[in-house]
């Protein structure tokens, strides 16, 4: 498209184009030449068609057409050329005038410049002298500077400032030595500079060696101080928790008298004060607490950096510190680990506190990777030492002491960024062994406490004794402080066992605390259950089965068990509080009374002894006249004796036994009395009896029921009804024998309502023994034709039906 536009631009406009091919070729050729295009295609086409003459003709014709244009251009520029020639001719005359003027000026200049050249020569000579003088001054100043630096280096050497001395030597060597004009001075410096460096290296190496010896003692003291501060912080936390628990307890008891106090927070980071906190140029001078001085170390490091021996010093430092740590791992076989464990762990703690400081302020003296490798080695060794020592220990208190110190070590070093999970895992691994040892210790203590029990009510003469033995375990029966001297319903065994259990809880929580496990209440509760159900319960069972021989002793043990129920509630609340668990959650996961075996055994023992006493009085039932002519109005002798004993028993038991325990025991005794009377009527000792005898037994039962009713002021209505229900069997039997229609026993509805405790076999046997007062020996022969008693007839029918059923 571009070439087409150009053709249109230069296309001739001198007539109408011929349609012939030659004319077209000529126009194309003319356009190509005007546009400066390549004529190769036209030449190839002419020779290809065999008509080169046509091409030559066209070229000649184009040349002729351009000659006229050339002539016109020449004519246009000829006049300008003539004018230019005229200007050149006038310029030649001006040039000649300028040449003569320049010649005159040169002559004048030569005459004037002669004196100036003489002055210039003098100036150049003076300048050369000045340059020489300046050079001499420069060399003198260089020597002076060199001597000043030498003097300064000597001063630094004499004052022990080796780093600055090396800096002076480096400046002398790098900047002034090669420029020194004095060869003698230069030779002297070249000899002395290496000697100075060697001297400085020896001095700082000696100082570093002394520092390595000193830092071991400092590390031990530093570790003890750091762990001591962690212990103090932990104690403050414990004190705060105690106050919080007291506040919660006051809130639980709805006490309005609250005490508020301002808590003053101590600086927990006090250990860092003075331990190399002065930092200059990125490095700490380390002067501070307990002589913890890193200056010799950093001086040696700077000097070796200046000497170009940085890597060698780093390796030397790391190897020496590694050897020191390895020596710290040695556990003396001559000293018990319980006595040396604090020194052992404090030494390691101080070592890594120092390394942490050097890592952060040493300017790359030791890398984080190197510190981590040292820590991994230390953790592995400490874990193996703990495993070995724990496996040998047979005392729970010793294991707890070491565990507490190791946990403090973990708290201390965790503040510096060291991972301590592996150490805490070792402590958790020996949790079961610790509690087994603790259970064994408590078993011995409980056995000793129970062996010392005299089965007597505890006498407290002072309020502090009441607070120590009652309030501290929340086993008081009233919030009102009693008058003193105060006789408690329990014996000395109860507070002694409570103290043992409370100590167990506190030791268990102490072991589980700060061991990496936040929620450990379930673990403490599990071992507390074991202590109560396996240790204390079994010990009490053994005491009951082997040492209780009288009613008073059995009653005291039963009273103790009732108090222990309240104490067990306190134990679980105390464990929850120490474990940081809300009381409502602890109440939610409470289980049944863990001492139920001992409680049931104590009540069974008391009931058994009371039954034996009652059996002694019940032997008087042999004196009952079973064929009495008239019913007894005031009760038989045996029941009067039993009631007198029971009333005496109740008056004594009410002072120490809870109502529910006394109710269960009395209910058991009354039920036994009922069974005894029924057994007597059912047994072979009674061959026959009449209605008068049964009416006398009815009076006896009424007396017993009256005794139960008289206890209504001490018991609830439900408890009183349960006491009466204990006599249900003998009452229903007497009612049946005195009934006018005993055959109603065969009615299922009436039997379920009125005779549900009776066994029909016993009813048959006892009913057969009932005789009518009119019955006499051989009475059936004389009264065969007489009218039979309807009640007797009904009873006989009942007996016959029951025999048929059986």
Key descriptive features of the protein:
single chain, 806 residues, mainly alpha, two-stranded antiparallel sheet, 28 helices, 72% helix, elongated, disordered N terminus
How would you summarize the topology of this molecule?
Elements: H1 2-10, H2 21-34, H3 40-49, H4 52-159, H5 162-176, H6 183-252, E1 279-280, E2 283-284, H7 295-306, H8 310-328, H9 337-361, H10 368-392, H11 396-414, H12 421-429, H13 431-451, E3 459-460, H14 463-469, E4 486-487, H15 493-512, H16 521-547, H17 551-578, H18 583-588, H19 596-618, H20 637-653, H21 659-682, E5 689-690, H22 691-709, H23 717-725, H24 728-738, H25 748-754, H26 760-769, E6 770-771, H27 779-782, H28 790-805
- The total of beta strands comes to 6
Q: What is the CA–CA distance across the termini?
A: 137 Å
Structural class: mainly alpha
Low-confidence stretches: 1-19, 255-291, 776-787
Assign a percent range to the helix content: over 70%
User: Mean pLDDT, rounded to whole units?
Assistant: 78
Which percent range describes the beta-strand content?
under 5%
The rough form would be described as elongated
Largest sheet, spatial ordering of strands:
1-2
How many DSSP helices?
28
What about the largest sheet? 2 strands, antiparallel
Radius of gyration, in angstroms, nearest whole number: 62 Å
Function: Component of the exocyst complex involved in the docking of exocytic vesicles with fusion sites on the plasma membrane.
Keywords: Exocytosis, Transport
Domain Exocyst complex component EXOC6/Sec15 N-terminal: 58-227
Domain Exocyst complex subunit EXOC6/Sec15 C-terminal: 423-769
């Amino acid at each position: 498209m571009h070439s087409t536009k150009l053709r249109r631009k230069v296309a001739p406009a001198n007539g109408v184009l011929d349609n012939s091919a030659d004319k077209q070729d000529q126009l194309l050729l003319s356009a190509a030449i005007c546009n400066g295009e390549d004529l190769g295609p036209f030449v190839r086409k002419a020779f290809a068609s065999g008509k080169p003459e046509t091409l030559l003709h066209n070229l000649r014709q184009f040349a002729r057409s351009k000659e006229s244009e050339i002539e016109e251009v020449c004519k246009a520029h000829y006049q300008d050329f003539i004018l230019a020639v005229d200007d050149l001719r006038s310029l030649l005359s001006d040039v000649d005038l300028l040449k003569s003027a320049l010649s005159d000026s040169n002559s004048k200049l030569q005459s004037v410049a002669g004196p100036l050249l003489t002055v210039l020569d003098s100036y150049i000579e003076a300048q050369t002298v000045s340059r020489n003088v300046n050079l001499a001054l420069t060399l003198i100043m260089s020597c002076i500077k060199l001597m000043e630096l030498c003097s300064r280096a000597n001063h630094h050497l004499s004052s022990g400032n080796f780093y600055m001395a090396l800096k002076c030597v480096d400046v002398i060597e790098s900047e002034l030595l090669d420029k020194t004009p004095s060869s003698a001075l230069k030779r002297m410096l070249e000899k002395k500079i290496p000697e100075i460096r060697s001297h400085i290296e020896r001095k700082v190496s000696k100082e570093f060696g002394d520092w390595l010896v000193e830092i071991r003692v400092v590390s031990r003291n530093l570790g003890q101080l750091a762990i001591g501060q962690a212990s103090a912080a932990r104690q403050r936390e414990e004190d705060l928790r105690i106050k919080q628990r007291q506040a919660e307890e006051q809130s639980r008891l709805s006490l309005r008298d609250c005490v508020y106090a301002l808590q003053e927070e101590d600086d927990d980071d006090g250990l860092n004060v003075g331990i190399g906190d002065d930092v200059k140029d990125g490095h700490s001078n380390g002067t501070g607490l307990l002589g913890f001085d890193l200056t010799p170390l950093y001086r040696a490091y700077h000097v070796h950096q200046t000497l170009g021996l940085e890597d060698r010093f780093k390796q030397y430092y790391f190897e020496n510190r590694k050897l020191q740590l390895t020596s710290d791992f040695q556990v003396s076989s001559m000293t018990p680990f319980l006595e040396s464990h604090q020194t052992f762990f404090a030494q390691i703690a101080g070592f890594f506190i120092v390394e942490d400081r050097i890592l952060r302020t040493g300017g790359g003296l030791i890398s984080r990777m190197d510190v981590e490798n040292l820590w991994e080695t230390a953790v592995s060794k400490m874990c193996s030492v703990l495993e070995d020592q724990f496996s040998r220990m047979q005392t729970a208190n010793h294991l707890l002491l070491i565990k507490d110190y190791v946990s403090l070590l973990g708290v201390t070093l965790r503040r510096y960024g060291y991972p301590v999970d592996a150490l805490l895992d070792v402590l958790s691994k020996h949790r079961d062994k610790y509690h087994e040892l603790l259970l064994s210790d408590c078993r011995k203590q409980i056995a000793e406490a129970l062996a010392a029990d005299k089965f007597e009510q505890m006498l407290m003469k002072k309020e502090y004794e009441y607070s120590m033995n009652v309030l501290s375990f929340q086993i008081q029966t009233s919030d009102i402080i009693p008058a003193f001297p105060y006789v408690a319903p329990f014996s000395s065994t109860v507070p002694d066992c409570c103290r043992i259990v409370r100590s167990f809880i506190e030791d268990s929580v102490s072991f589980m605390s700060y061991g990496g496990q936040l929620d450990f209440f379930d673990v403490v509760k599990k071992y507390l259950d074991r202590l109560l159900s396996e240790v204390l319960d079994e010990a009490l069972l053994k005491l009951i089965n082997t040492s209780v021989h009288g009613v008073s002793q059995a009653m005291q043990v039963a009273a103790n068990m009732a108090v222990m129920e309240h104490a067990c509630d306190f134990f679980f609340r105390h464990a929850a509080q120490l474990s940081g668990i809300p009381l409502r959650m602890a109440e939610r996961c409470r289980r049944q009374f863990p001492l139920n075996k001992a409680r049931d055994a104590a009540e069974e023992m008391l009931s058994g002894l009371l039954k034996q006493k009652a059996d002694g009085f019940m032997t008087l039932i042999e004196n009952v006249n079973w064929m009495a002519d008239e019913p007894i109005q005031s009760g038989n002798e045996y029941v009067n004796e039993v009631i007198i004993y029971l009333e005496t028993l109740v008056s004594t038991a009410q002072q120490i036994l809870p109502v529910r325990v006394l109710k269960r025991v009395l209910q058991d005794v009354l039920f036994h009395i009922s069974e005894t009377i029924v057994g007597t009527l059912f047994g072979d000792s009674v061959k026959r009896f009449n209605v008068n005898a049964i009416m006398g037994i009815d009076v006896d039962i009424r007396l017993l029921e009256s005794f139960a009713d008289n206890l209504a002021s001490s018991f609830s209505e439900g408890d009183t009804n349960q006491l009466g229900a204990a006599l249900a069997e003998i009452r229903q039997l007497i009612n049946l024998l005195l009934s006018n229609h005993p055959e109603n026993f065969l009615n299922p509805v009436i039997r379920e309502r009125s005779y549900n405790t009776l066994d029909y076999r016993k009813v048959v046997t006892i009913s057969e023994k009932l005789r009518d007062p009119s019955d006499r020996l051989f009475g059936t022969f004389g009264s065969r034709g007489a009218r039979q008693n309807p009640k007797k007839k009904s009873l006989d029918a009942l007996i016959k039906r029951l025999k048929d059923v059986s």
